[in-house]
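As a warm-up, study this chain.
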Amino acid sequence: MYKELQDKPLIIGLIDPKSPSNVGAVMRAAGCYQVDAVVYSGLRYDKAVRFNTDTKKVTSRIPLQHVDDLQALQTNGRKLICVDLVEGATPLPEFIHPENAIYVFGPEDSSVSQELVDSADAVVYVPTHGCMNLAASVNVLLYDRLAKASGTVFNDALIRSSRDINNNVKMRLT
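Now compare it with the structure written out below.
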C-alpha cells in the first residue's frame, strides 16, 4: 500500500485538516525542513483546497497526497510518531527523533485517536501554555528535529541559500 511513499524517510501526516491556510503553512515548513512528503486523511481539506496558501509552491517539489489510512505508513523501517497534547507523552525537548518517521498531527479541532496513539512507536508533545495551531506545531517539531540532527551545518552559506532575494543584510564587524 502507498508504494510511492515507501522510500520517503520523513513524512508529515495530517488527520482530517480543515484549514487550507494551515496546510499551506505546513507545506512551506516541509520545504524549509526538507520533508519528503505530506499526507492527509479525511475529506475536509479536499473541499477547501482551492484556498490553499502554498506561497513558495512547495507542492511542485514535495508531494501532498490524500491517504485513507495514516497507520498504514508505519513500517519496520519507518516509525509512527503522534504529536499531540496527550497525557503521558514525551516532551519534545527530551525526544530522540528516529531517522525514518511519519509524524502524525491531529486535526485543528480535535485530537489524535486513542487507537492511533496506542499503535504509535512514540507520542510527543510540545510543552506550551495553551495549544498551538497545526502549522505552528509542525514547524516547532521540524525545527527540533533539525536542531538535534548530527551533521547539520549552521553557517552563512545556509543563510544565503535560505533567505529571500530582497534580503542581503550582513553583520558588521566592530
